[in-house]
Specification:
This protein is an alpha/beta fold. Helix content is about 30%, strand content about 20%. The strands form two sheets. The chain has an eight-stranded mixed β-sheet, with helices on both faces. It is globular, with a radius of gyration of 21 Å. The two termini are about 40 Å apart. About 40% of the residues are buried. It binds adenosine-5'-triphosphate (ATP). Adenosine-5'-triphosphate (ATP) binds next to strand 1, strand 2 and helix 1. The site of adenosine-5'-triphosphate (ATP) has 16 residues, from strand 1, strand 2 and helix 1. It is a peripheral membrane protein. This is Oligopeptide/dipeptide ABC transporter ATP-binding protein. It is found in: Cell inner membrane. Belongs to the ABC transporter superfamily. Its main location: membrane.
Length: about 325
């Protein structure tokens, strides 16, 4: 359904070019869920905004985003308008602000449905009632204004809107950040039910790899604008192979709860002047001279792809990777 090929996004910022997404390729099938994880600033949001053509004017996008046979990078504004909502919908971090405060929530939902589907107001209202039921909101809330909703209810209303037209793909960018854990579980259960029932594809953007572990079939780990490891979620989170994924995995207790939290020293590089070769090299305990060449994203026997020159050393590294001292900052040029 979705095929992203060699996608590049460059921002012009303060007279400099910032390479936020650099040669990303990925796919998504119907009924499948793909998680995109990585630290803040690694390009997750930019990647999804590029897919949805929602980037600001200072961004230049190159590459292909094939969605149901159309290249979205080159699609006209009118063509895009047609597929947004109907085929492609977005649940954002700032979903709370996406509702218009001066309209009743139900009217906003009905309007969205009627904008795309030629149906009566009564039909659109009946569909809205069903959607609200699906996300656990009583139909009387259709007649209330956004300020009457709690944060969790607004998030559910946004999810109802995202689902309104039965899109083929939903991009969810930190969709539950503002919700408590119980509500978060309910929202994900709902998204997952829709994925399984309606054959909708889900792209989930998050910092939180435990959310990906619970909700995604496949995962793409991003670092400094590039995918460094990509494949089956269980394979990758049970036995990560890229040193960055190993570091990220160490930094999360939620997955098994029995290990010490270890952070990766330092931070992602300045993307206006990224390191030559592997972008993770300055923070990588396994880095060697060979890492001055850019590592290709190579497919391994188990089907995952990894971009690292030092894979033969990874098994031995796994043991010492559990020690905080391993990750102490060693600046490598
Ligand atoms: N409009 C913009 N103009 C210039 N640079 C930008 C713009 N938007 C994002 N960037 C830069 O692009 C890089 C990637 O940012 P992006 O928001 O995609 O990362 P992210 O992984 O989604 O982070 P977060 O998890 O914090 O949302 C960052 O260096 C960011 O500063």
């Amino acid at each position: 359904m979705l095929g992203v090929q060699d996608l590049r996004v460059t921002f012009q910022s303060d007279g400099k070019a910032l390479s936020a997404v650099d040669g990303v390729s990925l796919t998504l099938d119907r009924g499948e869920s793909l998680g995109i994880v990585g630290e803040s600033g690694c390009g997750k949001t930019t990647l999804t905004k590029a897919i949805l053509r929602l980037l600001p004017a200072n961004a230049k996008t190159e590459g292909r985003v094939e969605f149901q046979g159309k290249n979205l990078v080159e699609l006209s504004v009118a063509g895009l308008r047609e597929i947004r909502w109907q085929e492609l919908s977005l649940i954002t971090q700032s979903a709370m602000n996406a509702l218009d405060p001066v309209w009743r929530v139900g009217d906003q939902l009905i309007e969205a449905i009627r904008l795309h589907d030629d149906c009566s107001k009564a039909e659109a209202r009946a569909r809205s009632v069903k959607l609200f039921d699906l996300v656990g909101l009583k139909s009387e809330w259709l007649d209330r204004y956004p300020h009457e909703y709690s944060g969790g209810m607004k998030q559910r209303a946004i999810i109802a809107m995202a689902l309104a037209l039965g899109p083929a793909m939903i991009v969810a960018d930190e969709p539950t950040t503002a919700l408590d854990v119980v509500m978060q579980d309910q929202v994900f259960a709902e998204i997952d039910r829709i994925r399984a029932a309606g054959k909708t594809g889900i792209v989930l953007i998050t910092h939180d790899i435990s959310l990906v572990a619970e909700n995604c079939d496949r995962v793409a780990v991003m670092y400094a604008g590039k995918i460094v490891e990509y494949g089956n979620t269980k394979d990758i989170l049970d036995l990560p192979k890229h040193p960055y994924t190993i570091g990220l995995r160490n930094a999360f207790a939620e997955l098994d709860g029995d290990h010490e939290l270890i952070s990766i020293s330092g931070g992602p590089p300045d993307l206006t002047n990224p390191p030559k070769g592997c972008r993770f090299k300055p923070r990588c305990p396994l880095a060697s001279d060979g890492c001055n060449r850019e590592p290709p994203l190579s497919v391994l026997d188990d089907g995952r792809s990894v971009a690292c020159h030092n894979l033969p050393q990874v098994e031995a590294f796994r043991g010492v990777a559990k020690l905080a001292s391993t990750w102490e900052m060693v600046e490598r040029s």
